[in-house]
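Inverse folding, one chain.
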């Protein structure tokens, strides 16, 4: 068994699509739009075959997000090396994103991109 894809609700679907295309080399499929519900989505494919679905809806509410909560909390992308993580972090910073902290190596050995603050580029 494998997870076929994960889905993520976003407020601005075109901006989210552009972000994943620019920084993670995602390839977006055709926009799906359900006229009766207003739901729109893109499937984003990555070089290893993994996929992420980004979705939006007019009924979407943007509640406050707290780090200490139950439920889905993160998604991990492998860039292949610490150097590539550092390079992507610097690229995000240079493109106007507010980087909260820096890349770090977790206790289980993963090199982690920093969190981007609200209101990023």
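Residues assigned per position:
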């Amino acid at each position: 068994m494998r997870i076929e894809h994960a889905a993520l609700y976003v407020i601005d679907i075109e901006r989210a699509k552009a972000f994943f295309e620019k920084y993670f080399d995602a390839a977006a499929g055709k926009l799906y739009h359900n006229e009766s519900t207003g739901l729109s989505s893109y499937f984003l494919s990555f070089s290893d075959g993994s996929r992420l679905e980004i979705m939006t809806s007019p009924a979407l509410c943007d509640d406050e997000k707290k780090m200490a909560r139950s439920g889905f909390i993160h998604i991990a992308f492998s860039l292949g090396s610490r150097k590539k993580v550092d390079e992507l972090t610097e690229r995000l910073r240079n493109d106007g994103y507010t980087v909260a902290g820096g890349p770090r190596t977790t206790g289980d050995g993963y090199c982690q991109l920093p969190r981007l603050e609200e209101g990023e580029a």
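The first helix runs from residue 13 to 24. Helices lie at 13-24, 82-94.
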